[in-house]
Amino acid sequence: MLKHAVLVGLIQALQAKPTALCYVDSHAGRGRYDLRAEQAEKTGEHHGGIQRLAGVAALPPLLADYLRQVAACNADAEAVTIYPGSPLLAQSLLREQDRAILCELHPEEAAALKALFRDDPRLAVHQRDGYGALKALLPPVQRRGVVLIDPPFEAQAGEFATIESALRPALARWPSGVYAIWYPIKQDADVVPFHRWLAHEAGAARVLVAEVLLRPADTPLRLNGCGMAIVNPPWRFEQALQPALDVLARHLGDAGLGRSRLTWLAGP
């Protein structure tokens, strides 16, 4: 939810200018998820996430805009049964002049993604490794836009290293692009080296980190929270983020243990 709320906010902020933008998704998934499906019911994650937030009144604008996009994917706005992944959220926001590049390596997921967007020429689906695509496809023709890097993090420390090796040349090729990197938080100590790299070695002048913790980050055996590192965030984007982070922490955290953090690693 943090990832998708941030994504909606970034795209909308960039659309303050009429010139075309490009959305690039490195790990796009299948784009659309049925929360009634067996796998979704097995994990039950949505019951503690989107279903809980859907009933909250007077949301800050960033979260309200995000929930409107989710509701638009459902026949009944009061019952969320279909959850849009990042590609579907992006599609709902793209203007006629905007474009999207969606990368997904898994054959079945890529096939589902191609089927979902077969009739929309604004979105191009590539069955390929997303990290390699950053090197091959950046900068986009539009020269403005946002890149979402959202890997599966099967090996936490190893994934951070892979992100670093892909992000450095991407920034060199497209230094003005906005990059949003999602990461899980199990233990704070696992994230600190990545933050240090972003602050001192990535070569970015402005890096903003937004995190939501559902419980103390003190065990590697569970997901205790997550973060979004935003390179080149739009002007004053942190002002829209803070109230959204506070609401997520308050309503999704365990028994009053939720908390949020908003930190400039470089800049502003």
TrEMBL record:
Gene3D superfamilies the record matches: Vaccinia Virus protein VP39
Keyword Manganese among record annotations: no
EC category: transferase
Subunit structure: Monomer.
InterPro entries found in the cross-reference section: RlmJ (IPR007473), SAM-dependent_MTases_sf (IPR029063)
Protein name: Ribosomal RNA large subunit methyltransferase J
Keywords attached to this entry: Methyltransferase, RNA-binding, rRNA processing, S-adenosyl-L-methionine, Transferase
Residues annotated as the enzyme's active site: 150
Organism: Dokdonella koreensis DS-123
HAMAP family with a match to the protein in the record: 23SrRNA_methyltr_J
Family annotation (Pfam families): RsmJ (PF04378)
Catalytic activity: adenosine(2030) in 23S rRNA + S-adenosyl-L-methionine = N(6)-methyladenosine(2030) in 23S rRNA + S-adenosyl-L-homocysteine + H(+)
